[in-house]
Amino acid sequence: GGSEAAAAAAAGGGGNRVFFQSPRGGGSSREDAVPATAAVVQVQQQQRRQQQGKVTVKYDRKELRKRLVLEEWIVEQLGQLYGCEEEEMPDVEIDIDDLLDAANEEERALKLQETLVDCYKPTEEFIKELLSRIRGMRKLSPPQKKSI
């Protein structure tokens, strides 16, 4: 009937084509809803992929990769410093952009020491290594639109 065509048009909205096979015999309306739900999920997944694509265009891919590697290293180091897995770690947040905003190395080191104040293991090596790793990095703020 017309309800399948309407569901296909609604789910396919943005130029995507979605086809449904009508169930044989007079299927109940519940059976008709199952393929429609699957199609909507597919369309949402496509939209999500497109949004992810926009993010990587917005930022420099190399900077994103460097940031990801650094963040993984930080989590690993914090796990060793606190002697626990990531899930059990105390609420320690190291904001790389915040560190990059600091005026100089001393201010960055102070911010890190304050963040790690409750760590019972020595943190000097971690702080020194982290500061050397962020040297030359840029903040990951959205790029400014160029004025014409």
UniProtKB/TrEMBL annotation:
Keyword hit for Phosphoprotein: yes
Domain of life: Eukaryota
Record's keyword terms, sorted: Acetylation, Phosphoprotein, Protein phosphatase inhibitor
UniProt xrefs under Pfam families: PP1_inhibitor
Biased composition (Low complexity): 1-10
Region spans: Disordered: 1-40
SUPFAM superfamilies noted in UniProt: Myosin phosphatase inhibitor 17kDa protein, CPI-17 (SSF81790)
GO MF annotations in UniProt: protein serine/threonine phosphatase inhibitor activity
Entry keyword annotation includes Acetylation: yes
InterPro entries tied to this protein: CPI-17, CPI-17_sf
A Gene Ontology cellular-component term: cytoplasm
PANTHER family: PROTEIN PHOSPHATASE 1 INHIBITOR POTENTIATED BY PROTEIN KINASE C, PROTEIN PHOSPHATASE 1 REGULATORY SUBUNIT 14C
Protein family per UniProt: Belongs to the PP1 inhibitor family.
Protein's recorded name: PP14C phosphatase
Species of the source: Turnix velox (Little buttonquail)
Record gene name: Ppp1r14c
